[in-house]
Amino acid sequence: MKDIENIELTYLTLNDYQELKAAMIDSYTTMPNSFWREHQIASLIECFPEGQVVIKINDQIAGCALSIMVDYNSFDDHHSYQEITGNYTFSTHTEDGDVLYGIDVFIKPEYRGLRLGRRLYDYRKELCERLNLRGVAFGGRIPNYHKYSDKLSPKEYIAKVRRKEIHDPVLNFQVSNDFHPTKVLKNYLEGDEASNDYAVLLEWDNIYYEKKSKKASVIKKVIRLGLIQWQMRPYKDLEELMTQVEFFVDAVSGYRSDFALFPEFFNAPLMAQNNHLTEAEAIRELAKHTEEIVKQFSQLSISYNINIISGSMPEMQNGKLYNVGYLCRRDGTVERYEKLHVTPDEVRVWGLQKGHELKSFDTDCGKIGILICYDSEFPELSRILADEGMDILFVPFLTDTQNGYSRVRNCSQARAIENECYVAIAGSVGNLPKVQNMDIQYAQSMVFTPCDFAFPANGIKAEATPNSEMILIADVDIDLLRQLHQFGSVRNLKDRRKDLYELKKL
User: Fold this and answer.
1) pTM
2) Residue 373 known to be catalytic
């Protein structure tokens, strides 16, 4: 270490060839004459210069990584090294390839233990992301397998290596660098007697890969959320209420938000005109406005170029009362969601019925889920949505007391952690003295994140002032979720014990 003056990662050139040859001979002592010829290195550099790199210590080659791009689907699952390299000519390299295939990687013996191999693998991963390839792959040697081949199959050997019961320096290193074994390859590398002619196909998935689309579309990675903390106040009619709705849509779209989230039963003030009726009758009168409100929400989503989540409203279907909301996309499409769990008070006072359908929604900002208030307290719902690929969960709510709010808040934050997603909650504040069963509201709208290094330590991205009418704007980065799924300090989704239990929709 004390003799190291500088370490440099640089592109391989043909001027490096003689030194490269000597380094390979030093590195592959168990495989005599295993070095690339000069014309082969020249071919690699000519067809794919970015894929050929060396690490130099004090201007001397200490390690090397050689790669090509291949159309992975054109090769058999049990390909050989000779096949993947086009009989060592690299004719299989193509600019239209979708996988970065590792041809060779080595570190000279005297420099091992300095984590130089990790630098080479990290370069390959970064190159893969930069070129928008779907992953990195290579056939990994298992040089200690010959010691166990008489009593263990390759599959059993790999399993023991992963459980740390057997030490294999090559395979252990590759797995520790986030490569996962996918297949055992027989007769992969000619002359690899130490591996007993076996290799392990190892792959690393590029979580940022975007399949090329023929449509003119923009895939958003940073999503801006606009939450409306709605003030309950008297409105003389629907027109006045929708004027206030448009004011908030205008406000959050002015900040170029991708979503506007309204609270549960935000239109409850309109029940004041029917306060002479029973609670059950008044809410059914309120339900008569829902169709027109959805129509106007859809018009606003188009004219303000924003996806609107309408909170929730009462709706009559086949003589039964439901609590429903609508996703009004900015492309003009509209989809409906239902409250699946109703509280005892909602049943007793209003006669609300349970909804029937749980589903996620595709948007121009990825897949989202929507759960109304009490539904957030049932973890099975959001877990099913997470299995469907949900990135953001929206929870419109209405709570009258702080303890009711705390249930929604704490459960929603738990949903963000256990499902590795963002959760946005929005509620109403203020009071409605002339509306029965809707006396007062308590809310603090928030955006929750998972709790890991890339996110706020407390899992709170943004929070509104409690009990104040306002908007809350927050940006959420979808790429951070992709990183978390693969490389988080804990992985709640990946580490589930599916061998012990399962969760599915009926």
Assistant:
1) 0.78
2) yes
